[in-house]
């Protein structure tokens, strides 16, 4: 396959991918990174198409080259920007756009000098540099990244260096280097561009799919409103401690709490205000806990706190500390400062406990605290002694 045919393949490949991305997100909300990536592929398709038409004599060479390369630079820069956006670096534009403008000016100056070697040098360095920027964006998630991300980092880094190597060869050996510069290297660089198109396109989509799956898996065990474990997540965290409770060792305790008269808050100020207060009070509870402790949402405004290696008497002190912090922390909503209290039930895990018996005992203590006037703490009674 000659260079001209490869340029056409790059144009059509990017055009097909940008069309698919456009219709995929048409009429629905889409992430900013996906929008940027779609525009990037459109620019790359336009740039490669202009270069192909120039090589085929359909368009005037100078016009197509002067417009085609800057459009191509823009597409590759935006592709890198989409990856920085996906890596939660929204300020990438402050660096990318000035660099893009400088790159276009540099290339146009080289074109005006009318030295083919300088143009090849500038275009290779610019494109290779922006592709390496995309690799750097992917590498930010290397430590906790999947095998897919690590493969993309390594493969795209090698291909980006291959693109930039043409510039290095022109710089170091302007008179050529036998058959490698004259025939082999341009074909290798064209192949690198094609592989970067495939890896960049499919890699971005697969990484987006991977993030969606991770988020769905997280939402199965995390409460979306308060960002603490939901009932399923709490039960998963509780399971190993219940198994340890059957063996001799440090005790583990459980606190069940419910915010008092929360329905009145929703009725008076609306559910958005109630959500604000709930998130704020959960943060208050977190501030009173150790890193090893775990708070989770059971249902509605009822929460549970798992206290590993904590006896019932110590759990009572923790509950009282949380109760006092909640009482002393009014929360600002859109309409007023709202103060709430909470009632608590405290118990320790027992060797013969199941999740049903544990939460039933803790809930009975909670109901007693509410019956005694709310804003109180009740402790579950000790186990009955076996008959003699």
TrEMBL record:
Reaction equations catalysed: 2 GTP = 3',3'-c-di-GMP + 2 diphosphate
GO MF entries: diguanylate cyclase activity
Protein name: diguanylate cyclase
Domain GGDEF: residue ranges: 250-382
E.C. number(s) listed in UniProt: 2.7.7.65
Residues passing through the membrane, by range: 64-84, 96-114, 120-139, 151-173, 185-208
A GO-annotated cellular component: plasma membrane
Top EC group: transferase
Top-level taxonomy: Bacteria, Pseudomonadati, Pseudomonadota, Betaproteobacteria, Burkholderiales
Record-linked InterPro entries: Diguanylate_Cyclase, GGDEF_dom, Nucleotide_cyclase, Rev_trsase/Diguanyl_cyclase
Keyword Ligase: no
Alphabetical keyword list: Membrane, Transmembrane, Transmembrane helix
GO biological process: cell adhesion involved in single-species biofilm formation; negative regulation of bacterial-type flagellum-dependent cell motility
């Amino acid at each position: 396959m000659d260079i001209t045919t490869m340029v056409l393949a790059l144009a059509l490949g990017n055009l097909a991918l940008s069309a698919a991305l456009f219709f995929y997100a048409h009429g629905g909300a889409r992430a900013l990174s996906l929008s940027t990536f779609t525009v990037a592929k459109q620019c790359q398709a336009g740039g490669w198409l202009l270069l192909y038409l120039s090589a085929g004599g359909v368009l005037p060479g100078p016009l197509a080259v002067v417009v085609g390369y800057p459009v191509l630079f823009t597409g590759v820069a935006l592709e890198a920007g989409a990856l920085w956006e996906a890596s939660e670096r929204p300020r990438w534009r402050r660096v990318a756009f000035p660099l893009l403008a400088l790159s276009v000016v540099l290339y146009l100056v080289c074109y005006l000098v009318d030295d083919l070697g300088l143009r090849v040098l500038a275009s290779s360095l610019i494109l290779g540099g922006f592709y390496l920027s995309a690799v750097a964006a992917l590498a930010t998630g290397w430590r906790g990244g999947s095998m897919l991300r690590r493969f993309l980092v390594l493969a795209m880094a090698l291909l980006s260096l291959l693109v930039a190597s043409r510039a290095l060869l022109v710089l170091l050996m302007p008179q050529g280097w036998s058959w490698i510069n004259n025939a082999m290297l341009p074909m290798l660089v064209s192949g690198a561009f094609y592989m970067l198109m495939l890896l960049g396109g499919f890699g971005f989509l697969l990484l987006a799919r991977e993030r969606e799956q991770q988020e769905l898996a997280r939402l199965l065990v995390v409460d979306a409103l308060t960002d603490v474990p939901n009932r399923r997540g709490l039960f998963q965290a509780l399971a190993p401690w219940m198994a340890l409770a059957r063996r001799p060792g440090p005790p583990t305790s459980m606190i069940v709490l419910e915010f008092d008269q929360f329905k009145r808050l929703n009725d008076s100020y609306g559910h958005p205000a109630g959500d604000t207060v709930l998130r704020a009070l959960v943060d208050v509870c977190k501030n009173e806990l150790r890193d090893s402790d775990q708070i989770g949402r059971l249902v509605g405004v009822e929460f549970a706190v798992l206290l590993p290696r904590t006896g019932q008497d110590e759990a009572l002190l923790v509950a009282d500390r949380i109760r006092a912090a909640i009482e002393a922390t009014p929360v600002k909503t859109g309409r007023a400062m709202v103060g709430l209290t909470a009632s608590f039930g405290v118990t320790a895990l027992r060797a013969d406990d199941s999740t049903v018996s544990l939460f039933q005992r803790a809930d009975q203590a909670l109901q007693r605290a509410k019956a005694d006037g709310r804003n109180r703490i009740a402790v579950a009674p000790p186990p009955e002694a076996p008959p003699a």
